[in-house]
Amino acid sequence: MRVIDSPSGFSAYASDMTDRDDLLKLVRDLAVVKGRVTLSSGQVADWYVDLRRLTLHHAGAPLVGRVMLDLVDDWEFDAVGGLTLGADPVALAMLHAAAARGGRALDAFVVRKSDKAHGLQRRVEGPDVAGRRVLAVEDTSTTGGSVLTAVAALREAGAEVVGVAVIVDRGAEKAVRAAGLSYRSAFSLVDLGQQG
């Protein structure tokens, strides 16, 4: 596949520009909400990206899966997931997209926000990640806090985290890279027509 640069400076695969363009339109139409809101990081913003409106949407979820798989096509991993709740639909969309393409077995996992006190008392649910190469995902990230919490839990469970990928980066790239992780996002604030 030929790699080309998108207007925001992110790389995209030429054969998938239609999916990326369609996903961006849905992000803008469904997920960008104007109005004062407190983010999970504690920061206050005048707009919000509610990506669950997209990742749980009948047309959005398949696009999320395909675009996110293409975004990290050159990374080797066999399981994907992150901190519940934002990462869950992203991971499942990628699992289904990989299965639809055939030839790639991709598992998904869920990282709990805290240790489970009953049952098997697992913090990382789903297929065992110990000794496996995994991708940590999130729908959107401002500070990187949620995804870095997931990365710490994954490492504690014995996984090798190959990198972090998000649908929309609101500013987490610097913190994630400072933690020594590779980082990619499908869209930036520039793509969404927002400044921060």
Automatic annotation (TrEMBL):
Chain sites annotated for binding 5-phospho-alpha-D-ribose 1-diphosphate: 112-113, 116, 118, 138-146
EC number: 2.4.2.10
Primary enzyme class: transferase
Keywords attached to this entry: Glycosyltransferase, Magnesium, Pyrimidine biosynthesis, Transferase
Domain Phosphoribosyltransferase stretches: 59-176
A Pfam family assignment: Pribosyltran
Biological pathway: Pyrimidine metabolism; UMP biosynthesis via de novo pathway; UMP from orotate: step 1/2
GO molecular function, one term: orotate phosphoribosyltransferase activity
Family: Belongs to the purine/pyrimidine phosphoribosyltransferase family. PyrE subfamily.
Stated name of the protein: Orotate phosphoribosyltransferase
Organism encoding this protein: Dactylosporangium sucinum
Ligand binding (orotate): 142, 170
Function: Catalyzes the transfer of a ribosyl phosphate group from 5-phosphoribose 1-diphosphate to orotate, leading to the formation of orotidine monophosphate (OMP).
